[in-house]
Design goal:
Shape: globular
Largest sheet: none
Helix content: 55-70%
Distance between the termini: 64 Å
Order of helices and strands: HHHHHHHHHHHHHHHHHHHHHHHH
Radius of gyration: 27 Å
Number of strands: 0
Structural class: mainly alpha
């Protein structure tokens, strides 16, 4: 089978998405423990390079109709499957991908189901997700309906179906959308749209946005949003912020802001901080400290000046938390001085973050700030966590500190019980 240019694009899209979806790979793979929602993005991972398919230029129509080529009577179906297994078990990724492309070129449409079944039976889908995506993509180019029928009947999760639909939407988005709509039942979000949105995000972002906005709030919409954002971020910070700000659905806009803020801060920290300040809400509350922390690591003077210029309020306090967290990792004393200088802007969250990030460099200084946490329950939990960590690293120093410093009654009793052999 010679792969077309459309196949090349689709393969690049699905291989790039393989890391994000690998936890949802299919039976007999282990089930994923990761869930995705709009307010809690799943971590993504991109392949370093898409497979080189530039030498495969035969048309899709030619591939669908031509007879099998390059085979002899001695090449039985089982021999072909054994060759696939030998390729997939190879440890050299470059040689493995080249051999797999050559193998795919020799497959007839009727061969794909057996090939993919054998691949999945090997139990290597976690470590060979890119190759899995290549096989699914190639099948989708010659018979997407058969590929999707197989995926519905034999796989769990959305990796296989979304991979196939991403590829199909690159060549015939109308047909892919019709299939997705016809095969979705119930009133919930359509789980098949994420793959289509991933493809359209690169070729037709307006249509992708329409599909995304039409989905109800759900894990599936979160997955579709994760598929859409990389294409928007590639257009630059201003274009991404404009797209997000224009979303009419408050939940979708908030989820998009939360997902995009940290990545935008790597490119344009001031613009991202200004954007969060201008759009107060859950996303601004949860991401301002991350943005200022990223900025502090690259330009501490500018980040501190930005914090100092903010008016009193939540955004200023969260900005300070980010600055102190970044500084505490490198210089606990400098971070402590900032806490003392801007005490009116310090929250319990800032103190907890300072303790945790300075504990490795200066545990005695870190412990001395736990008493400033106003919430008694949070104070006790912070003492327990910090002391457990210090005791595991340096029990002599930790025990000496505990003998010299007063602890809350509940905390002191817990460590006395532990010293006596209790839990």
């Amino acid at each position: 089978m010679h792969l077309t240019r459309a196949t090349t694009l689709a393969t690049a899209l699905v291989i790039g998405a393989a890391g994000f979806l690998v936890g949802r790979l299919t039976i007999p793979d282990r089930p994923s423990s990761v869930t995705t929602s709009e307010s809690q993005p799943a971590p993504t991972r991109s392949s370093s390079r898409a497979a080189d398919t530039s030498g495969h230029s035969a048309s899709l129509a030619e591939r669908k109709t031509r007879p099998d080529s390059g085979r002899t009577a001695a090449t039985t179906a089982e021999e072909k499957l054994k060759r696939l297994e030998m390729i997939i078990r190879g440890e050299n990724p470059l040689a493995r991908n080249r051999a797999l492309l050559a193998y795919i070129d020799q497959l007839a449409p009727r061969d794909f189901e057996a090939a993919i079944t054998r691949f999945r039976d090997l139990g290597l889908t976690d470590s060979r997700s890119g190759e899995y995506a290549m096989l699914l993509t190639a099948w989708s180019q010659v018979d997407p309906i058969a590929a999707l029928t197989y995926a519905k009947a034999n796989t769990r999760g959305n990796f296989a179906s979304n991979t196939i639909l991403t590829s199909w939407a690159a060549t015939d988005p109308d047909a892919a959308i019709r299939w997705a709509e016809a095969n979705h039942t119930g009133t919930g979000a359509n789980p098949y749209l994420a793959g289509i949105i991933r493809s359209l995000g690169a070729t037709d972002p307006t249509r992708a946005t329409t599909l995304l906005s039409g989905m109800p709030r759900s894990q599936e919409r979160g997955e579709a949003l994760d598929a859409m954002l990389p294409h928007l971020l590639a257009q630059g910070p201003e274009a991404a912020r404009t797209w997000i700000s224009a979303l009419a659905d408050d939940s979708l806009r908030n989820g998009s802001m939360m997902r995009a803020a940290e990545q935008l801060a790597q490119i344009d920290p001031k613009g991202t901080a200004d954007w969060l300040v201008a759009n107060p809400g859950e996303a601004a509350k949860r991401r301002m400290d991350d943005v200022l922390g990223i900025w502090t690591n690259t330009n501490e003077k500018a980040a501190v000046a930005y914090f100092e210029a903010l008016p009193k309020g939540e955004s200023r306090s969260e900005a300070l938390r980010g600055v102190i967290t970044a500084i505490a990792t490198q210089d606990a004393n400098a971070a402590a001085k900032m806490i003392n200088r801007y005490s009116s802007d310090v929250t319990d969250g800032t103190l907890q973050s300072f303790v945790w990030h300075s504990l490795g460099n200066d545990p005695s200084l870190a412990l001395s700030y736990i008493g400033r946490i106003s919430n008694p329950g949070e104070q006790d939990r912070m003492y327990n966590r910090a002391l457990d960590t210090w005791l595991s690293r340096d029990p002599t120093s930790a025990q000496a500190w505990m003998q010299k410093n007063a602890l809350p009654e509940n905390v002191a009793r817990r460590f006395q019980n532990k010293a006596a052999g209790g839990p």
